[in-house]
Every structure is written in structure tokens, then in C-alpha cells.
Amino acid sequence: MGDERQHVRVAVIGTGFGGLGMGVRLRREGITDFVILERAGSVGGTWRDNSYPGCACDVPSHLYSFSFAPNAEWPRTFSGQPHIRAYLERVTDTFGLRPHIRFDSEVLAARWDGERARWEIRTAREELTADVLVSATGPLSDPRIPEIPGLDGFPGKVFHSARWDHDYDLAGKRVAMVGTGASAIQIVPAVQPKVARLTVIQRTPPWVLPRMDRGINAVERWLHDTVPATAKARRGLLWLIREFQVGAFVKRPQLMKATEQLAKAHLRKAVKDPVLRAKLIPDYTIGCKRILLSNDYYPALAAPNAEVVAGALREVRGSTVVTADGTEREVDAIVFGTGFHVTDMPIGERITGADGRTLAEHWKDGMAALRGSTVDGFPNLLMVIGPNTGLANSSMILMIESTLAYIADYLRTLDRTGAAALVAKPAAVRAWNAGLQRRLARTVWNTGGCVSWYLDVNGRNTTVWPGTTAEFRRATARVDLAEYDLVPRPAGPAAATAAAEVTA
User: Fold this and answer.
1) Which family, according to UniProt (predicted)?
2) What backbone phi and psi angles, to 5 degrees, belong to 204?
């Protein structure tokens, strides 16, 4: 009796920018035998999950969109979450992706079958097999809430910023905001006017610069729609400015001092209280953590009903939160803005390679991938937004599109060579990552004196790309076969069975 599971050429995990972009690229390559597996009931990835008050992007809209799907209707220079999510829904429909998507299909396990040279995948709804597996889950998909003694006994409401409880009204409540990262600085000014008391628990203050946001008027939108070259030029200028900024982050962190002075002036203008201002000045080089953009974060903290408590959340006693310095505050709700599982992505525990080890086990000493995309021991597994492809100053969509081009060439290489799979050589992965770590050693992310989510538990930077987006595009323009071993197509009964299943 044959295998009744569906077999596809490519299975993609996730429907954020990475997964949808992969679907578009596959169709443009003439590949229609693919599925996109999504654990939720709609597309959008992080822009579906993060719907907290004030949620918006800190990259200009015309740069934070696909080059192949320009959007002349962005309402603001920095658009909010509803508009970005709507854009992704529109991309899904415009490029005919919806028939390929399997919603409510969380990937529970994926295992490489060496005998048949394919991936066996088990989702919450079905089992299927695929020649190629593309993980586009992204690093900002699984929220991280620290283990806090007593949190389980808190009688009030607790939720993470990426799992916002819209049924719970914060109006008139005493609220503790834990964290001061990119999400928190948007949440704080959005909820501060309505809560009775807002306690911001700050482990480390962020560097904050003004947000140069404004509405895009009807004339601009008409021009971009009528003369697409104007939108392309706008995008190109935004890209070029950020390319020039890379040197200060990567090669000359001392140049960040001028930016630091701008941030301090921004703080002085908004916060007159010297005691509060002192709490909000970081003790690390600007850029070591992600630089945040906001015009209303500091004014919200200076409001009469807000306070900043310096120090991490140490424990919860009943309805009282206790910080590292012993400060106690009674609250009705605790909101965690404590980031995500970035260097320990949960999907790694669900993918098993050729040697029977999971990706998490393979990466026990730190994430590493060849050109951010492939891992030794995991044939035909490719990643979108893999290790060391993150950016600190520009649009991740640029990195995603470069990776999609690399994956497209990978698939063409499989066809050209007749191989069942490619698997990255361990030596190639080591050489690529040794080069990255040498370059990262002098960057502001490694030398700036902070502890950030860019670094893993071993202090190794496994997230950020130490170069320009143009350089990454060149590095991923095509597959270098010298970096891979070819996995031949299976012979004998396995081949016959596989052929029968494909033609059935």
C-alpha cells in the first residue's frame, strides 16, 4: 500500500514577509507545487500577532515593502500595524498565494528521511512530505516572558505585547510595563493617558531619537501611483541613506558619538526633571542595542501618572511587583515587553536533520548557517531570516529578497545537477561564520558595553549582519557548489515507491 500523504516540491513555514515573499518567488520561478504552512488563521506573521496599541514600524514604509509590490497608498512615512497587515493581505491575493496556504497548520515536527531524500512533515492538521523545506518563521514570532517568582499567583491580568488582550480594558487600572524595548516605547504613550497609574520597570534605558513621521498627502500618493518611478526613487534614497550609516555601526563605533548627542538633546527637550532624566540616560554606546524612534515616549514618562523604576522585575507577591532594588508597587495588570526567542527559536526543536539531531541540538553552542540560509547536516532545509541576517538600521525586506533569490538559485541548482538534495559542507559553514565573527568583533553591537538580544547566552553575536544590504545581496546572488555536497537521488525500492507516489 502506497504512502497516502501529499508530496510537494517545496513546503514553506510561515506567512509573514518571508513566507509570502517565498511564495511569490516560487510562482515567478514557475513553481506551483508548494504549500505554505501557517499556524494561525490568517496571514501576517509578526504584523498579525503584534496588534498592541501604538504598534508601528520603525523603518520608512516605502522601504519596508517588497520591491516587486510597491504600495503608493502608504498613509504615513512610518505606517502602523493595521496598514502593514493590510498590505500583506493584499500581496497574498494579488499574487495568487491563498490557494497554497494551509491555515491552522502549525508544524509540530519535520524530519529528514535519508532513504527517500525528502522531508517528512507533521502539522496540527495533517502529514505531508516535501523535497525542500523552507523555514520562514522569523525570529520575532515566539514571545519570551522571563521566569519571575510568584508570577503564577498574580491575581490580575498578565500578557505579552505580542499577545495583547484586547478584551481587557486598561482604563483606570494600575499597570506595570516590563521592558523598555521597541514595543514598550510604543505601548507606553498609547496607554499612559488612560491608565490610573503606569509603572515602567526598566532594566536598561534605551537610546531614543526623534521619529520623523508625517502623513503622506494625496498629491504624493497620486504622484507615486501615476509615475511609479517617483516611488522607486524615494525608496532608493531611503535605502542609500541607510547604506551610508552602516560604517559607523560596523567599522567606526566612535562615530556614533554625534548621534548620541542628538539623542541626549531629544531627552533634555522632553524631560525637565533631572532625577527622571538621569534614569533615562543609557551607560552604553548608542547603537549597541537597537536605536528607538519616538516623539511621545519621553513626554509619557514625564506625565504625573507615570513613573520609571530602574531595575529588573525580581518577583511578584500577590498583586505587588517587586524590582531588583526592592521597590514595590501594587498593580492590576502586568504587560511584558520582553522580546522574543531570537537566539533559541522554538522551531529548532521541531526540525530533525540527517543525523537524527534536532536543529536546536545542532545549535547548542550557537546558531550558524551558510550565508544565513543553509545548515550542515540538514539537506534541503533553507531559512529566510536565518542566523546573522538581521539589521539594526535598515529594512529586513531587503535581506529577505536577497535570501529569496538565493533559494531560487538553490532550486535551479537542484534541477541542473539532478541531485535530490544539497547539504552545506561543515567546513563551508565554519569558514563563513568565522569570517562573520571576525567582522562582528569590532562592531558597536559587540563593543558597545551592553547586553542585547543580538547576543546569545554565550555572548556570541548570531543575529546581525556586519555589512551593507548590497553586500549581502552580492553574497547570496548564486549558490556556490563548492560549498555543498550533492545528495544523489535514491535508488532501488525507495526510488520506485517515491516515483509511484508522485505520479499517483
Assistant:
1) Belongs to the FAD-binding monooxygenase family.
2) -140, 125
- Domain map of the chain by residue range? 6-142+341-503, 151-212+237-336
Closest CA to 426 of 481, 471, 369, 386: 369
Cα separation, 203 vs 338, in Å, equals 10
* Residue 14 in grid coordinates: 510561515
The model's confidence at residue 1, banded by pLDDT at 50, 70 and 90, is: very low
What's the per-residue H, E or C state across 341-379? CCCCCHHHHCEECCCCCEHHHHCCCCCCCECCCECCCCC
* Cell numbers at 386, concatenated: 536565518
Query: pLDDT value at position 501?
Result: 46
CA distances to 23, 160, 330, 409 from 415, rounded to whole Å, are 19, 45, 63, 10
Q: Distance of CA 218 to CAs 72, 75, 84, 224, 366, Å? A: 10, 9, 19, 10, 49
127-135 and 197-202 beta bridge pairing: unpaired
DSSP per residue over 239-285, as a string? Answer: HHHHHHHHHHHHT-GGGHHHHHHHHHHHHHHH---HHHHHHTS-SS-
Distance CA 54, CA 296 (A): 11
Reduce the DSSP state of residue 331 to 3 states and report it: coil
pLDDT score at 498: 47
Rounded-to-10 torsion of CA 262, 265, 269, 275: 130
Question: So what's the architecture of 151-212+237-336 in CATH?
Answer: 3-Layer(bba) Sandwich (3.50)
pLDDT 10s digits, 379-436: 999 999 999 999 999 999 999 999 999 999 999 999 999 999 999 999 999 999 999 9
Please, which residues bridge with residue 322 across strands? 315, 328
Summarize pLDDT for 202-247 with one digit per residue, the tens.
999 999 999 999 999 999 999 999 999 999 999 999 999 999 999 8
Is 0.85 surpassed by the pTM of this model? yes
Report the pLDDT value the prediction gives residue 2, as an integer from 0 to 100: 61
- Residues linked to residue 306 through DSSP beta bridges, in sequence order: 198
CA distance 220 to 230: 9
CA distance 118 to 501: 13
* Angstrom distances, CA of residue 116 to CA of 92, 353, 359, 416, 492: 32, 14, 20, 20, 10
Class of domain 6-142+341-503 (CATH, top level): alpha beta
Alpha-carbon span 45 to 237, nearest angstrom = 28
| DSSP labels, 87-130 | HHHHHHHHTT-GGGEETT--EEEEEEETTTTEEEEEESS-EEEE
In this structure, what is the dihedral angle of CA atoms 266, 268, 269, 273, given to the nearest 10 degrees? 140
Helix, strand, coil: what percent of the chain each, to 5?
35, 20, 45
List, for residues 460-491, the tens digit of each pLDDT value: 999 999 999 999 999 999 999 999 999 999 98
